[in-house]
């Protein structure tokens, strides 16, 4: 739990998972849908089930994660779902059109661009036509907070450079972060996106049908994307 969230307080962990479920329900409601409408759901980057532990009402719930110890723990502690370790790169062990809903909590907030593009294409592949994906990203608000932390900690020049990169590219990948020198791989650090980048670039694989600023735990942005 602490490895994936940075928090060792189990009550905080539980409450954040419940809040994320509410966030998912709220964005689905914008489109007249509920979780009960979906028969087969994929939690991409399930971790130790922060969100999935609150989804036991789903008819068929599948979670994937690259960390083997997390999948082993889920199989022992949360037997109501199907938990599978995925590789660093696609494909997932599912046929095309296997799921009608994909959810994720704070995965594309960490992957580098190469991994993001590969996994966005793969999530599109495993979704049924018309299926939905609810994806979170660290948008303008988290990035502004990151820049403020640089300025407050004596690195204003670095803040200027990173802001210029973000404005030019539409995203900023940060390797010098709290995930450095941990058990996580070198392609897993901190990623920030502008909403405009997401709307344009991710449209290669999905139709973006809604966006909720700070819609994930009042911090990250949420989008609802539809498989075309």
TrEMBL record:
Signal peptide: none annotated. One of its GO terms (molecular function) is S-adenosylmethionine-dependent methyltransferase activity. InterPro entries: Methyltransf_11, Methyltransf_Superfamily, SAM-dependent_MTases_sf. Residues 42-134 form the Methyltransferase type domain. This is Unannotated protein. It comes from freshwater metagenome.
């Amino acid at each position: 739990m602490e490895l994936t969230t940075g928090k060792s307080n189990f009550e905080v962990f539980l409450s954040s998972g419940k809040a994320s479920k509410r966030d998912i329900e709220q964005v689905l409601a914008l489109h007249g849908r509920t979780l009960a409408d979906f028969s087969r759901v994929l939690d991409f980057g399930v971790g130790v089930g922060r969100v999935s532990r609150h989804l036991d009402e789903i008819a068929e719930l599948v979670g994937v994660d690259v960390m083997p110890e997390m999948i082993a723990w889920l199989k022992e502690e949360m037997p109501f779902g199907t938990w599978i370790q995925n590789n660093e790169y696609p494909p997932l062990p599912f046929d095309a059109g296997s799921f009608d809903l994909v959810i994720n909590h704070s995965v594309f907030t960490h992957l580098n661009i190469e991994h993001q593009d590969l996994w966005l294409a793969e999530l599109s592949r495993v979704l049924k036509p018309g299926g939905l994906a609810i994806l979170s990203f660290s948008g303008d608000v988290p990035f502004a907070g990151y820049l403020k932390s640089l300025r407050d900690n004596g690195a204003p020049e670095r803040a200027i450079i990173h802001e210029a990169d973000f404005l030019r590219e539409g995203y900023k990948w940060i390797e010098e972060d709290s995930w450095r020198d941990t058990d996580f791989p070198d392609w897993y650090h901190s990623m920030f996106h502008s909403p405009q980048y997401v709307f344009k670039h991710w449209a290669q694989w999905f139709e973006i049908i809604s966006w909720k600023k700070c819609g994930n735990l009042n911090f990250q942005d949420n989008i609802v994307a539809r498989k075309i």
